[in-house]
Automatic annotation (TrEMBL):
NCBIfam families: ksgA (TIGR00755). This is Ribosomal RNA small subunit methyltransferase A. The gene is rsmA. InterPro entries: KsgA/Erm (IPR001737), rRNA_Ade_diMease-like_C (IPR023165), rRNA_Ade_methylase_Trfase_N (IPR020598), rRNA_adenine_dimethylase (IPR011530), SAM-dependent_MTases_sf (IPR029063). GO terms for molecular function: 16S rRNA (adenine(1518)-N(6)/adenine(1519)-N(6))-dimethyltransferase activity; RNA binding. SUPFAM superfamilies: S-adenosyl-L-methionine-dependent methyltransferases (SSF53335). It comes from Alistipes indistinctus YIT 12060. The keyword Glycoprotein does not apply. Transmembrane segments: none annotated. Residues 19-189 form the Ribosomal RNA adenine methylase transferase N-terminal domain.
Length: 259
């Protein structure tokens, strides 16, 4: 049987076997041998992951047509293939000992997948994902770049990120209108940020949601007037601040909100 790519699911099936092999080999799995492939599709990547003897592969697939196809062509994998939405999975219940994430992520939910990774970051030591190139660049870029943004800060707070390689449009069915890229995230040593993490997220979002404004003006819009108090970052724009600077800024905001 054939699996029809579905636009509403953001499906662009990889057809190049050599790229699939390269993606499968990019996962080190040196901290955890359990792996979850998000969006198995037609099993192009699944095939090479199943060849690895150092991992135990599970799958998450929301497309019923793909599920039927995978059951037919990979019957030994079927018991570990879960039908359902990765974004709604409780990874703490399903993988209490931890799990690595890999996949050719659907373009329309790739950012949401990374926010799910952040929620379960203490259980996910490594992620290898193929996404739109602009998303990969945004996640991997250091401070000072115009692509650097909210997701960059959040992920770089807890993961070391590598941009691995670019993938052209012609190796997909249907071909997307943009290039893709593969990135690897490996959990760093930061267990908790040295600040209120919820407030940290609010501060980062507040500044980048108005990234053309100075930090002073964006924080004032989100939190109100700080009574004339000044901070060394107030005249800057958010894209120049790294994680440590945002932690310091969050502490400052917290103190002045209390005061």
């Amino acid at each position: 049987m054939n699996v029809r790519p579905k636009k509403h699911l953001g499906q662009h099936f990889l057809t190049d076997q050599s790229i699939a092999r390269r993606i499968a080999g990019s996962l080190t799995a040196d901290r955890c041998s359990t792996v979850l492939e998000v969006g198995c599709g037609t099993g192009v990547l699944t095939r090479f992951l199943l060849e690895r003897e150092d991992i135990t592969l599970y799958g998450a697939e929301v497309d019923t047509e793909s599920i039927v196809y995978l059951h037919e062509y990979f019957p030994g994998f079927a018991p570990r293939l879960m039908e359902g939405d990765f974004l709604r999975m409780n990874l703490a219940e399903q993988f209490p000992q931890g799990v690595n994430i890999i996949g050719n992520f659907p373009y329309n939910i790739s950012s949401q997948i990374f926010f799910q990774v952040l929620e379960y970051r203490d259980l996910i030591p490594e992620v290898v994902g193929m996404v739109q190139r602009e998303v990969a660049v945004r996640i991997a870029e250091p401070p000072g770049s115009k692509e650097y943004g909210i997701l960059s800060v959040f992920l770089q707070a807890f993961y070391d990120i590598e941009y691995l390689f670019t993938v052209s449009e012609g190796v997909f069915n249907p071909p997307p209108k943009v290039k893709s890229a593969v990135i690897r995230l490996r959990r760093n040593g930061v267990q908790r940020l040295d600040c209120d993490e919820r407030l940290f997220m609010k501060v980062v979002k507040a500044t980048f949601n108005q990234r053309r404004k100075t930090i002073r003006n964006s924080l004032r819009a989100a939190f109100g007037d700080f009574g004339g108090a000044e901070h060394e970052f107030f005249s800057l724009r958010p894209e120049v601040l790294g994680v440590a600077q945002f932690v310091g800024l969050t502490d400052w905001v917290q103190r002045h909100l209390r005061g």
